[in-house]
């Protein structure tokens, strides 16, 4: 896992690495983990952190720049661009939430917990503002 903003690439996933990275950056923007003006790591740094090819990172950055999500400032870096969320981003956010909940429920089951046991803890955390 990258130390940067929770981005990760799963080498065992059949989804191509570039698609995982694109989805991860889009999800971070949609979820608000990345906001307008936030600087992304350099292509080289993110490639090292994720243990992937720098050309893959450059390709994703360029694609997201063409999509209007990122902007590159020569000699300064790559930043989250100001944009209006699209319906596709809302759908992506819902898909990401579903994926996270599915993974959470699978982990609970793997450890022998049932949702009814966990809900009071989730509610307690929600009340604490977590």
Describe this structure in words.
This protein has helices spanning 17-30, 43-50, 54-66, 87-110, 115-127; strands at 70-73, 77-80. It is globular, with a radius of gyration of 17 Å. It is 55% helix and 6% strand. The protein has two domains: 17-80, Winged helix-like DNA-binding domain superfamily/Winged helix DNA-binding domain (Arc Repressor Mutant, subunit A, Orthogonal Bundle), CATH 1.10.10; 87-127. It has a two-stranded antiparallel sheet. The chain contains five helices and two strands; from the N terminus they run H-H-H-E-E-H-H. It is mostly helical and 130 residues long.
Main sheet summary = 2 strands, antiparallel
State the shape. Answer: globular
Rg of Cα set: 17 Å
- Overall pLDDT, averaged? 88
- Give the DSSP E fraction (strand runs of 2 or more residues): 5-15%
Detail the poorly predicted runs: none
What is the ordering of alpha helices and beta strands? HHHEEHH
The CATH topology of the largest domain, please?
Arc Repressor Mutant, subunit A
- Name given to the CATH homologous superfamily of the largest domain: Winged helix-like DNA-binding domain superfamily/Winged helix DNA-binding domain
User: How much helicity do the residues have?
Assistant: 55-70%
Properties at a glance:
130 residues; mainly alpha; Arc Repressor Mutant, subunit A; 2 domains; two-stranded antiparallel sheet; globular
Layout of strands and helices, then pairs:
Layout: H1 17-30, H2 43-50, H3 54-66, E1 70-73, E2 77-80, H4 87-110, H5 115-127
Antiparallel strand pairs: 1-2
Helix pairs in contact: 1-3, 1-4, 2-3
């Amino acid at each position: 896992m990258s130390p940067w903003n929770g981005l990760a690439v799963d080498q065992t996933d059949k989804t191509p690495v570039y698609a995982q990275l694109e989805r991860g950056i889009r999800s971070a923007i949609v979820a608000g983990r990345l906001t307008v003006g936030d600087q992304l790591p350099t292509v080289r740094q993110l490639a090292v952190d994720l243990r992937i090819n720098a050309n893959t990172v450059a390709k994703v950055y360029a694609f997201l720049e063409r999509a209007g999500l990122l902007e590159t400032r020569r000699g300064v870096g790559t930043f989250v661009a100001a944009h209006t969320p699209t319906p596709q981003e809302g759908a992506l956010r819902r898909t990401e939430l579903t994926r996270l909940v599915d993974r959470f429920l699978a982990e609970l089951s793997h450890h022998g917990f049932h949702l009814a046991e966990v809900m009071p803890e989730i509610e307690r955390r929600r009340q604490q503002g977590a």
